[in-house]
Amino acid sequence: MPDSTSNGKWRSGFLASPVALTRLSSLVFVVLMFGHMSGYPWSSAESPQETHLVASMKSVDFNFMGERSTYWGLYFGWGLLIGVLLFLMAAMLWLLSDLSRLVPQRVGIIAAINSAVCGIGAYLSFLYFYVPPMLCFAANCVILLIVAARLLRAPTAAGGRGTNEIMTAASPDVPDGALR
């Protein structure tokens, strides 16, 4: 019986840990990416005006930074790029979560910056887009703010040693002082 109680405490403690919260944020970015990509081709053809607008975007070409382009090419390319960047953000947060035990303050700073960017993303989504991306960005803003607060208050790993000493000790193949 005591084993199940301690196991339950471990699970609840882990689910509220910076590692789990950072990975949750990563998963929210995956949801955001799939939601964004499910809107492909990011246009509607429900009315003649919309169809005409898309046709105009595809037919009007111009010189952009020395290259011929269309408004549709820029619009479509940026839509794809946003999907790729959302996936990158998800992957980076997932991998970053492992470092929160090693260098909590640095990961906390990164989480705080990402939280601020997500707050801006929520605001811009509210102004220019739709409620679902606004909610995803707002959720990530709150999650990453909690992560940042917890990590910035955490003691440093390895008894207060600096990052360079930790990294050097963790990888014996690196010559002493190479990370400084």
Radius of gyration: 22 Å
List low-confidence stretches: 165-169
Rounded average pLDDT = 83
Q: How much helical structure, as a percent, in the residues?
A: over 70%
Shape descriptor reads elongated
Largest sheet: 2 strands, antiparallel
Task: State the total count of DSSP E strands.
Answer: 2
> Number of helix segments?
7
Relative strand content: under 5%
Question: What is the domain tally?
Answer: 1
Estimated structural class: mainly alpha
Task: Please give the alpha-carbon distance between the first and last residues.
Answer: 50 Å
Main sheet strand line-up: 1-2
Q: Tell me the series of helices and strands, N- to C-terminal.
A: HHHEEHHHH
Describe this structure in words.
- The chain is mostly helical and 180 residues long.
- It has one domain.
- Helices cover 72% and strands 4% of the residues.
- The protein is built from 7 helices and 2 strands, in the order αααββαααα.
- A two-stranded antiparallel sheet has the order 1-2.
- A hairpin with a 2-residue loop joins strand 1 (61-64) and strand 2.
- The longest helix has 27 residues, at 71-97.
- The termini are far apart.
- The model is unreliable at 165-169 (pLDDT under 50).
